[in-house]
Amino acid sequence: MVVIKPTPSFYNDDQLSAYLSLLGLSAIKGQPSLANLNKIVRAHLMTIPWENTQMHYESAGHMDVAPQAIYKRAVADRAGGSYCFGQQTLMLGMLLAMGYRAYGCTGRVNTAPEPTEVDFETRSHLVLLVQIPTPHLAPTETGNETYFVDVGFGLGIVRPMLLSHGEEMPGLFPRERHRVVKADHPESSLDTTDPTTVPFAEEWRLEINMARNGQELPQGTWRTLYQFSLHQYYLVDFEWLSVMVQSNPKSLFWNHLVVVLYTPAKGDSAEVGEEMGVKVMMGPKVTYREGGKLEVWKELKNEADRISALKEYFNIEYPLDAAVNVRNKNGALGPQSL
């Protein structure tokens, strides 16, 4: 069992208040319960976009995921969001400021094309482990529960998930389910037949019952999204891993400008309920998916179209001349700048 001790946050009380106000959750301040953790995750996903536009439309081409930088961008300036390292850094600091016990650990994304295979990248993803303070436990909770939280995977889990072998929960779309299981790395040299070695080799996998094309897999078949260990990583690790990700020509973020933002489903409020839709900008289009329906909201012919769509659908604003920064990059739309 993991026991997480209380840890001071790198955000102050005023910053927590501003964050909760942005999410529309000021009333839950000082109440770090599981129910409120669900509300925070949900509201965060629907308020702060998962995106990497700074890499493509800013001259520095840098995703600054330091705590104060991501706070300024996402909360103070309301200028956009980040990818996993920025999103999860912000979430970690705010959960600690709320009174949750939490820390960050890292994972390897599975890039294998076949559902039943694994081909892991290096550690390029950030996962949060969270525990509920004793005074705020629900009657059904013992205090030994650990939940993992991930607002930084784009299209991943949309609520806290109990860290328990075989645990399943519904995903965002019909028939979609996620499962978490214990697993060793397939290339591990550690002998897990020796019980004393198991704690050093044991990791966890987040799985989904859907193929990459969105089709449901046969009953009992699961595709691994990523695998993570429970070893703690720190802010300095997050920043250096982010540098590695954004400077790697093989990475998704190097080759594509991507934006994901969740939205309340029709007739559902932002604070309660389970139904959500999701807006996605990837390549030359903006799509929206809710339930089993996928709609193309806008076709993007050039950078002017994309810059306009960023403002219209995701509230991320860049001047038209920012297109010069994406010229000759893999993420550019077509041969023209505008």
Oligomeric description of these chains: single chain
Uncertain residue segments:
none
Order of helices and strands: HHEHHHEEEEEEHEEHHEEEEH
**How much beta, percentage-wise?**
15-25%
Give the strand order of the largest sheet, numbering strands 1, 2, ... along the chain: 5-4-3-2-9-8-7-6
Strand and helix layout:
Blueprint lengths: L12 H11 L10 H12 L4 E2 L1 H5 L9 H10 L7 H15 L2 E10 L9 E12 L15 E3 L11 E2 L4 E4 L6 E7 L14 H4 L1 E6 L14 E6 L6 H12 L5 H4 L2 E7 L11 E7 L2 E6 L2 E7 L3 H12 L24
Antiparallel strand pairs: 1-10, 2-3, 2-9, 3-4, 4-5, 6-7, 7-8, 8-9, 10-11, 11-12, 12-13
Describe this structure in words.
This protein is of the alpha+beta class and 338 residues long. Helices cover 25% and strands 23% of the residues. It starts with 12 loop residues before the first helix and ends in a 24-residue tail after the last helix.
Output the keywords.
338 residues; alpha+beta; eight-stranded antiparallel beta sheet; five-stranded antiparallel beta sheet; 9 helices; 13 strands
Explain briefly what this protein structure is:
By secondary structure, the protein is α+β, with helices and mostly antiparallel strands. It has helices at 13-23, 34-45, 53-57, 67-76, 84-98, 198-201, 235-246, 252-255, 303-314; strands at 50-51, 101-110, 120-131, 147-149, 161-162, 167-170, 177-183, 203-208, 223-228, 258-264, 276-282, 285-290, 293-299.
